[in-house]
Amino acid sequence: MSRIALIEDHSRLAGMIRQSLSAAGIETDIFTNLSEAAYGLSHGEYSVMILDRGLPDGDGLLFLRTLRAGGTMTPDRVVRIQSLSTGYIPGEREHKKRSPAGLRIAL
């Protein structure tokens, strides 16, 4: 079974992604910051990493480059989350809902 490392600080978005992946039979570990992710990646084996660019303790892409430059094994497949966190449903005035369909397409 595949295991995915999801590095995302927005709990609602992380939960929606995990739920979608779980429905497909994919286990997902959620890390809410780069410190947690560094520890988790060094102690686990993941086939894919879904990585938020804007995390509370740094830039996800810079984190990935640092890991790879330091020789840390990272998954071959990395999905960057940048626009998903701002991808609100068009026409929504509250701008609080995100499109689950948009998540499925991006993943």
TrEMBL record:
Organism (species): Caballeronia sordidicola (Burkholderia sordidicola)
Record flagged with keyword Phosphoprotein: yes
Sequence positions bearing 4-aspartylphosphate: 52
Pfam family, one: Response_reg
Protein name (database record): Two-component response regulator
Residue intervals of the Response regulatory domain: 3-107
Keyword Repressor: no
GO biological process: phosphorelay signal transduction system
Record key words, sorted: Phosphoprotein
